[in-house]
Specification:
Blueprint (H helix, E strand, L loop, with lengths): L6 H25 L4 E2 L4 E2 L5 H24 L9 H17 L16 H24 L4
Antiparallel strand pairs: 1-2
């Protein structure tokens, strides 16, 4: 272990570099043309070919510097189990869906009496699915 850093400094540096690397790799996937088209959203990138080349060069250099620093200061990689992230996201999704049931929409104005029958059963189904997915993600793998 490199003696130029104490434990707190090592942790802070490792965390900052790890987060930078994760963001750079996400940006890299967006630059590669990964577009998303959902039912209620779309994600696309509006850069011209010259900008794409420049951005990729900056990402490549950034990742190289991160590798150099990790090697020089003997920083260890961490493994992140995505099941925890899935569980957390689905729990937040469940809470958001609960907050959009017809009775709670009253905070935005008068609620049409027909809304509960048309909206709530499907929202409850989505809530149950989100909660079950969160539970599934939390289960121990044999």
């Amino acid at each position: 272990m490199d003696s130029r850093l104490n434990q707190g400094q090592r942790h802070a540096l490792t965390t900052a570099l790890r987060q930078a690397e994760e963001r750079l790799r996400q940006t890299e996937s967006w630059l590669a043309g990964v577009e998303e088209t959902g039912t209620l959203y779309q994600r696309r990138l509006s850069l011209d070919p010259g900008q794409l080349i420049q951005a990729q060069a900056m990402i490549d250099r950034s990742l190289e510097v991160i590798r150099e620093l990790a090697e020089e200061f003997d920083l260890s990689p961490a493994t992140h189990d995505l099941s925890g992230a899935i569980a957390a996201q689905m729990t937040v999704t469940w809470a958001d869906l609960v907050d959009t049931q017809s009775a709670k929409l009253g905070r935005y104005g008068a609620v049409d009496s027909r809304l509960a029958g048309a909206l709530d059963p499907q929202l409850v189904e989505l809530q149950d699915l989100a909660l079950n997915l969160a539970r599934l993600a939390r289960e121990d793998v044999p």
